[in-house]
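A quick aside before the break. I want you to see a complete sequence-to-structure record at least once, exactly as it would be stored in a machine-readable document. Don't worry about memorizing anything.
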Amino acid sequence: MKLKTKYQIRRLYLFLFMQFIFLIPFFVQAGDGSGLEGKNVKLENPLKNVSSIEALLVAILNIVEILMIPVIIFFIIWAGFKYVTAQGNS
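That is the input. The structure line, written in tokens, reads:
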């Protein structure tokens, strides 16, 4: 195939691709509106006490801390039990 023909085919594919990309909103009828024009729609925060990322991280860490304290105590007791019951080679 000649170089000129390859170039023309490449341009044709690029043109068709660009047409498809720009026509996607038409295919999905985007931009027609959500049907909520004129209505009072409000998105409320489900986490009332959390208003920033920092507050969210603090809330998550508080929950993790509450859940991990019994686990840590269990492993400390388990390590002590293993230490006391360990027997050497002698």
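Two observations worth writing down. Residues 3-28+48-85 form one domain. The chain has a mean pLDDT of 83. We'll return to this after the break.
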